[in-house]
Amino acid sequence: MKLDESDYGYRIECRPDFGFLTVTIPANKMLKVEASAMATMDMNIAMKTRMRGGLSRLLTRESIFINEFTAEHGPGDISIAPGPPGDMEHVLLEGDTIYLQNSAFVASGPDVKLESKWQGLVKGFFSGESLFLIRCSGSGDLWFNTYGAIIPIDVAGDYVVDTSYIVAFTDGLQYTVNRIGGLKSLFFSGEGFVCRFRGTGRVWIQTRQVPSLAWWVNPFRPVQSSN
After folding, report:
1. Using CA atoms, how far apart are residues 91 and 85, in angstroms rounded to an integer?
2. Contact partners, residue 217, CB within 8 Å, separation at least 6
3. Is 127 helix (H, G, I), strand (E, B) or coil?
């Protein structure tokens, strides 16, 4: 896995708040892109839509489709804008495997295999995240996004991350989901479940989480009078 090399030319603008990705697709090459994420593209780029993930994607309320963009008769540029306001990360897989939270995938080269991985009921329900992860393996470029900025953390041994902040992690890490503190802490501390990683690898975390934003916004909601 390499962080600073790419098979395709690309640039990420407007980071870390509103990451906007532009990829130069070589002639007759294809790029996989999450559904509804394309913002602009050159006229010589053709699009096909394929199903990905089947029932597992449907259960997570994510799009079950992925778009494939091919540059015909010469290279072409495509710009991609993910839904969440936040940063993007790029890695070049070389036979590696990375696991993404189900909504983190943005784009990849044609030789990156995307599969839904069942977390199990305990890990999925307790984490507050999806029951499925996206298993990205093979060789080629991979881009994924976050809500907020992104921080990579190299793990050697044990490391604890709140489940709502995890974006991605490498295959060398084992993990379990546990409650932090006792029952009083669970209901009144504002904290919940954490993921305990063990092994050697890398974890990418995001600097914001949606539940915290909802909690912060809630007092400002207009309330309709009962009169």
Report:
1. 20
2. none
3. helix
